[in-house]
UniProtKB/TrEMBL annotation:
One of its GO terms (biological process) is protein folding. One of its GO terms (molecular function) is protein disulfide isomerase activity. This is GH24386. Transmembrane segments: none annotated. It holds the Pfam family Thioredoxin. Residues 20-146, 152-273, 282-405 form the Thioredoxin domain. PROSITE patterns: THIOREDOXIN_1, THIOREDOXIN_2. The gene is Dgri\GH24386. Residues 1-25 form the signal peptide. Belongs to the protein disulfide isomerase family.
Length: 409
């Protein structure tokens, strides 16, 4: 199997790469030379189809300014150094989306980095949505490229060995917490064993982990705050249970919704940008969705709605992705801004465009949206420079006032 063939190479490569990447004794010049090494094949519109048509290719679509892309860079180059050998079963490549926007749009790239595996002879690529570490990535490659049916059993055993917590709640400790949440998406329950609400939630939490067994882009975990108080204090846990969404080691938000299985599952799928397959969302969730539709922010979908909304007057638009933590943090302020704009009767519209929607992808590309959220103000069809100020309500109001010329808002 492919996995067996690359494990020794992985071990050897790890041993060889520790020194140039991590050794404190390395000189600045040596480190600079190491950082300049490029093993991944850089693709552009002229070379893309030729390389993809010649074999299996795993492509990283990225933007140089993207923090997540920068963190992934050393691992991606290490993977390329391992895999890009003579007659490889898969080539490791990359595309700079700031240089080749149309190419990235053609492959449905709406966030960075996006990792897609192009298999020889297949028209559709497969998107990698797991945690960005070597075991998860190599397991993905093996799973996608393994074809002999006779090896299914051994493949499953290997998968179980690599993912011992697949479909289970990961129990964290003071020693394992930081490493576990350092990369990827994590839904963490901070609890106390004596807490009755925690006890009531426990079986649902286990069911949630099992229900997301086919969605490796997020892990479900828990930590006992009576044993590991310092961690709970670091995350400002003041009551039990506290459910936090953590991305790449940073707290994104505190979950405040219903604690039934359907609602929790829908929340996770929303945060990772996965299509929700749940048909049993409870009434509370449906009510919340209905309320969202009644909000004062205009939800623009499609080219016609966008052009109509921006043609006349002043329209302030938030380009966003549903899974983006910064976008979610801005949402209440954006709603308040829209409410006050509506009340001012000054002909000001506050709107939003979901860049992950197929109807809006080309709009976001045309408007040069390179990160989320991106805020653009349009006056009589003319787009102004990107808003890069504070996202507080007073600052956003002051910005709009510059374009209306008087104190309407």
């Amino acid at each position: 199997m492919l996995f067996k063939s690359i494990v020794p190479l992985l071990c050897a490569a790890c041993a060889l790469s520790i020194s140039p990447y991590l050794a404190r004794a390395a000189t600045d010049e040596e480190q600079k030379q190491t950082d300049q090494k490029q093993f991944a094949i850089e693709l552009d519109p002229e070379t893309f189809d030729e390389v993809i048509g010649a074999g299996n290719v795993f492509v990283k679509f990225f933007a140089p300014w993207c923090g997540h892309c920068k963190r992934l860079h050393p691992l991606w180059e290490q993977l390329a150094e391992i895999m890009n050998i003579d007659e490889p079963k898969v080539k490791i490549a990359k595309v700079d989306c700031t240089k080749h926007q149309t190419l990235c749009a053609d492959h449905q790239v709406t966030g960075y980095p996006t990792l897609r595996l192009f298999k020889l002879g297949e028209t559709e690529s497969v998107r990698f949505k797991g945690t960005r570490d070597l075991p998860a990535i190599t397991d993905f490659i093996n799973q996608e490229l393994n074809t002999p049916a006779s090896e299914d059993l051994s493949g499953q055993q290997l998968k179980d060995e690599q993912n011992p917590n697949l479909g289970k709640v990961v129990e964290l400790t003071e020693d394992t917490f930081a490493k576990h949440v350092s990369s990827g998406n994590h839904f963490v329950k901070f609890f106390a064993p004596w807490c009755s609400h925690c006890q009531h939630l426990a079986p649902t939490w286990e069911e949630l982990a099992n229900a997301l067994v086919k969605e490796p882009a997020a892990t479900i975990s828990k930590i006992d705050c009576t044993q590991y108080r310092s961690i709970c204090q670091d995350f400002e846990v003041k009551g039990y249970p506290t459910l936090l969404w953590i991305e790449d080691g940073k707290k994104i938000e505190k979950y405040a919704g219903a604690r039934d299985l359907a609602t929790l599952k829908t929340y996770v799928e929303k945060m990772i940008g996965a299509p929700s397959g749940s048909n049993d969302v409870n009434d509370a969730t449906k009510d919340a969705l209905d309320a969202t539709k009644k909000q004062t922010v205009l939800q623009l979908n499609g080219k016609d709605e966008f052009e109509q909304a921006t043609a006349d007057g002043i329209t302030f638009i938030k380009f966003y992705a549903p899974w983006c933590g910064h976008c979610q943090k801005l949402q209440p302020t954006w709603e308040q801004l829209a409410t006050e704009a509506l009340a001012s009767d000054a002909g000001i519209s506050v709107a939003k465009v979901d860049c992950t929607s197929p109807d809006n992808r080309q709009i976001c590309i045309d408007q040069q949206v390179e990160g989320y959220p991106t805020l653009f103000l349009y006056k009589n069809g003319q787009r102004q420079n990107e808003y890069e100020g504070s996202r507080s309500l007073p600052e956003l109001q002051a910005y709009i006032k510059k374009f209306i010329g008087h104190d309407e808002l």
